[in-house]
Q: What sequence folds into this?
C-alpha cells in the first residue's frame, strides 16, 4: 500500500531522476581515417594556443571543442588511445582526426601512417 508519505517520496525520486538523466551527456561515435602529425610541427603553436609536442596525447579535430577528451580505437588491431583535442584539422578528405606521434604509436599505426579508426566522446547538451 502506498501512503501519502511514500507517494511524495516517489514523486521527489522520479523528479530527481528525470533531471539527472536529462542533463547527462550523450556518447557520440564517429568513424574514418586517422593520421598523425609530421615532425616539422613539433614546438609550433596549435589553434588552441598551446604548443604542440609529439610526446603528448593530443589530437586535432575539425569541430570538437578544445579540451574534449576522445577515445580512439584502431579498427584493425583493437588498440585504443585517449587524447585531448588541442588543434584543428585534419584537412585531408576522409580523415577524422590527426594524432600526436605518441598516440599513433599507442594505436600501432606508425608504420602505416593512416589507420581506420572509431572515435568516441561525450557531447554535452
A:
Amino acid at each position: 500500500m502506498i501512503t501519502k508519505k511514500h507517494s511524495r517520496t516517489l514523486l521527489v525520486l522520479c523528479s530527481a531522476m528525470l533531471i539527472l538523466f536529462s542533463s547527462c551527456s550523450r556518447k557520440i561515435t564517429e568513424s574514418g581515417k586517422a593520421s598523425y602529425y609530421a615532425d616539422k610541427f613539433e614546438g609550433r603553436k596549435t589553434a588552441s594556443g598551446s604548443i604542440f609536442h609529439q610526446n603528448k596525447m593530443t589530437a586535432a579535430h575539425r569541430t570538437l571543442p578544445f579540451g574534449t577528451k576522445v577515445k580512439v580505437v584502431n579498427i584493425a588491431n583493437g588498440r585504443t588511445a585517449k587524447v585531448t583535442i588541442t588543434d584543428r584539422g585534419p584537412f585531408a578528405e576522409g580523415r577524422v582526426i590527426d594524432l600526436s606521434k605518441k598516440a599513433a604509436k599507442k594505436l600501432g599505426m606508425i608504420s602505416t601512417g593512416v589507420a581506420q579508426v572509431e572515435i568516441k566522446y561525450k557531447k554535452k547538451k
